[in-house]
């Protein structure tokens, strides 16, 4: 049952769904897919034209329990997440409310960005305000480092077909240690872990929050780096800093555990972004080379740009800037001491 061919898996889904809907007739169309084995289908009922979403998460590859747990935690915090109408963990099937098909990525433009990001930050503040230890997995040093180690394996080794010397490897891990020291010193909150334009839905109440099953308890600026250093959409840095300042001021006012000084908070955000972008470069390369998902290749240059810019700013990260220049000659500005 866990490794069925696609056609058999779809038959299984239809059989389960028909029972959940009391044999009401419906149409089933693809809604979306993500970087995992999960697939999503939109169900449109013929009798009233209402819609639902079915999550298809094959148990051999996916576990629905974290999704259900985080959905409950985030909903209790006041975030707008899908309602769970039915579940079958053995078959890996969930029937969910439909938050629509308009992502922030498709909706955002220069005119509405201030308002939409304000809504997103409001949702994030709700999630962070409910934070407490022991509820979600710890985003600890081992996990953060393991994520960054995807970079030398998949981006450097596989994607760029490059081999690091012993000295370069040691230098890279020294940079990793510098980044982790800042990351792990941050205040801890609930972290969505992919809080960006593809996982925020334009709906009412706005936004709808999806794809949160990997949520953890960890560094406070992680979701902010996901949101404002988004792999799929780019904004002028002056504008993102303005949004970040507004968040920081509001967070202080409502008692979230942000740094007292914005400069310290911004440094945390920058180093958190570096950790994330190192990881994402490895993940995007792996999605292409291992999983055949070439759509992520077009997003690599922006992620590389974010990482390079941060590495150029901070002396501790200059060795990584030099390595990035070796991988992509001509991208690093001259004049840096390493």
TrEMBL record:
> InterPro entries of this UniProt entry?
Aminoglycoside_PTrfase, Kinase-like_dom_sf
Specify the superkingdom.
Answer: Bacteria
> Is ATP-binding a UniProt keyword of this protein?
yes
What UniProt keywords are attached to this protein's entry? ATP-binding, Nucleotide-binding
Q: Which residues form the Aminoglycoside phosphotransferase domain?
A: 28-252
Q: Does the keyword ATP-binding apply?
A: yes
Short name of one Pfam family: APH
PANTHER family xref list = N-ACETYLMURAMATE_N-ACETYLGLUCOSAMINE KINASE, TRNA THREONYLCARBAMOYLADENOSINE BIOSYNTHESIS PROTEIN TSAE
Q: What is this protein called?
A: Phosphotransferase
Give the source species. Answer: Uliginosibacterium silvisoli
